[in-house]
Amino acid sequence: MSLVLDPAAQDLLFREARTANTFTDEPVTEEQVQAIYDLVKYGPTAFNQTPLRITLVRSAEARERLVQHMSEGNQAKTASAPLVAILSADNEFHEELPTLFPAFPQAKDVFFSERSARENAAGMNAALQAAYFIVGIRAAGLAAGPMTGFDFEGVRKEFLDDDHTPLMVVNIGKPGADAWYPRSPRLDFDQVVTTV
User: Fold this and answer.
1) From start to end of 43-96, where are the E strands?
2) Cα separation, 69 vs 65, whole angstroms
3) What is the Cα–Cα distance from 101 to 118, expressed in whole angstroms?
4) Cα(140)–Cα(16) distance, integer angstroms
5) Which three-class secondary structure state does DSSP give residue 59?
6) Does residue 69 contact residue 155 with C-beta atoms inside 8 Å?
7) 45: left (phi over 0), alpha (psi -120 to 50) or beta
8) Nearest in space to 174 (alpha carbons), one of 12, 65, 24
């Protein structure tokens, strides 16, 4: 059985897409980011909680502050990418649940009154949304360079607050020269899927 999605779109989103390590200097516009978000916001999360928060790092001053918190191997590419996004989980997402999940507005208090429950849910669902965001970047014809090699606490203190947990930093733009490492292997279907 074949997929419904056009093979060219399959290639764009998955088969040919890779993590970019270099970028051209072509800017990434607010309109592009808005279009990406307007597409990926429909990806499912538990209770429609949508805890992902995106901090766009555009100014030279903010970029310099961020680069100081990146691992050495990630500093140059973060300094030169056209746009950098800090993706974080909002641990107070539950305040929006009466609006976001009107079918059961009590979920805010029934399931998420405890901070530890919110942190667990926010981390898992924001990571899911981060994956949608990366696929959305690819759908816009751009490349993503997601990274977890950075000082998480330093980034939180510099750019966020105690209610937000950083998940990853994503460089965004058109791929530059020698942008890709060779394609790494993937596990086969039988290694991953078990039928019971």
Assistant:
1) 52-57, 83-90
2) 7
3) 15
4) 14
5) coil
6) yes
7) beta
8) 24
Residue 74 to residue 50: CA distance in whole angstroms: 28
Phi, psi angle pair for 120, to nearest 5° = -60, -50
Mean pLDDT of 174-185: 93
**pLDDT tens digits, 62-72:** 999 999 999 99
The owner of tokens 């330093």 is 154
DSSP tag of 163 = T
3-state SS, residue 34:
helix
Phi-psi region of 52 (alpha: psi -120 to 50; beta: other; left: phi over 0): beta
The helix/strand/coil state of 141 is coil
Q: Residue 70 burial by CB count (10 A; 0-12/13-18/19+): exposed, middle or buried?
A: buried
List residues bridging with 90 in a β-sheet.
164
What CA–CA distance (Å, rounded) separates 136 from 156?
Answer: 25
Residue 1 is predicted with a pLDDT of 61
